[in-house]
Amino acid sequence: MRAMAETLIFGGAALALHLVAWPADTPRGAESAGGGGADLVTMSAASAAVARAVAEWERPPAPAMDAPAAPAPPALPHSAAPSPIADTAPPRHAALPRSPTRPAALSPPPAIPKPPDRAPTARRVEAKPATPDTPRPPPRPARTPTKRNTDTPPPQAEPSPAPSRASAAQVARRAAGDGGTARGRAAPAQSATLSPARARNLMAEWGGQIRTRIARGVPRGAGSGTAVVRLTVSADGGLVAVGLAKSSGNPRIDALALQAVRRAGRFPAAPAQLGLSQQSFTLPVQSR
To answer: Is 260 domain-assigned?
Structure first.
């Protein structure tokens, strides 16, 4: 507390000393001008711009111009005044006739006379002529299964007639070798039941047998080469035709191949299941 009091006392004394030592501001007078500094205000003529501005300021405003009157709209043609609507009075309904207060007493209807009594008449019934009763058919007897008689012998085939002379001659001609046409016609029926795979196997076996027969007759030492020949063989193994399908490049080997086919003699017969009259083959003939 003592330190705070001393600080306030000494601080206030220092502030008072500084205020006393601060100089006060002295008022300054107005500076003189004009007339050698004798007058405080100097008067001079206004410039032309200032005079023009003053004249404009003092000039009264121009009166407002009246706006031109708007042109009158054109006169519309005079239309006839609508005719007054006549007042129509509501229609009056005609007066309905008044119903009588009470209906007049109805007179009773006249009595209808009764018809005279008639005696009852007997009704005639025409008798229908008697017709004889049609007899009904007797009931059918029930069918009983019949047993087959197994004791009866089977029917015997009738003996065929004796062959005539013409048929005997035909049999003799067929035995002599004139039945080729009949055999050729019956062949398709036998081959019809032959499967394609079985027919190919039979054809391959027949062609292999013919090739083996030709290879046996090829001479050795003529040179190395392969000639392709085309030959046609009948069903019984006979040679029908032969020719060169592809040359070996050596005329000697080609000639030996054709000669080997011709020297082979009769080839194996065709399988009966094929049913062929003749068949062509293309076979290679190799010479060593």
So the answer is: yes
